[in-house]
Amino acid sequence: MSHKDPIMASTSGSMASGMSRVLKEPKTSVISNGRKRIVSKFTDDSEMLEEYDVVTDELLLRKSRKQTAVGGEGPWVIEVGTEARQGNLDRDLIVESVGAPQLSRQDTAEEYVYKIRNLPYKKDVFEVSVEKRSGNALNSIVVRTSNKKYFKVIDIQDLQRGSIDLDAANLSWDVKFDTLTIKYKKPMSIRIVEAQEKKERATIQSTRSGGPDDGCKQQ
C-alpha cells in the first residue's frame, strides 16, 4: 500500500468516528504531560483528536472538526472530556454564566457517563427517558424538569455513527449535589471494539513532546 492509499479506519476510530470512515493517512501519536495525543485525519476532510492517560489508557478528551463549506477548518466539537476555554472576543459574543448548566461526558469501561452540573432541583423534578425525536432515525436520551426550567436532548455519538439504537433498559440516572448523572450501559459489541482499539493504540509509534512528566518510555 502506498502512502497515498486510503486506509480503512481500524476501530480506534470506527465507533468513535464512524463505521465507514476511511483514514487519509496513518494516525499520529505524541506523548506530552502524561497524555497520549492521537490525531486521525479522514478522506472526508474531517479530523479527530483523542487524548489518553499514558498510564491508565483512560480516554480524557475526544474532539473532532469538519472542513467548512469554503474549505477552512471548522470549530472543534468536544465529545468526551473538557478542556479550558480560551477567550476569543471576536467569536464568543456571548459569555456563558458560571452558574449555567454544564454538560460533560467522561466514560468508564462499561458505561457512557454524562454529568450536567448546576441543576439545583430535587430528583423528583427530573424525568430522564429514551425517546425517538421527530425527524431522527434513532432514539435519544431526553432530560426534562417538571418545573420547565431545563430541557436537553443527548445523543451518544459513538452509537449514532454506528447506527445502534438506544434501549431504555440500559439507562440509569441519579441526582446529587446539584448534578444530574446519566449512565448508559455500553453494548457488548462496543466493548469488544474498544478492546481492539486499546490493542491498536499500543502499536502506534509515538513521539514525545517536552514536559515535566515526559520521562516515561516511548510507547
From TrEMBL:
Supply the InterPro entries for this chain.
DPCD
Q: Where is this region: Disordered?
A: 199-219
Q: Which domain of life is it from?
A: Eukaryota
Under the heading Pfam families, the entry gives: DPCD (PF14913)
Instruction: Family membership, please give it.
Output: Belongs to the DPCD family.
Protein name listed in UniProt: Protein DPCD
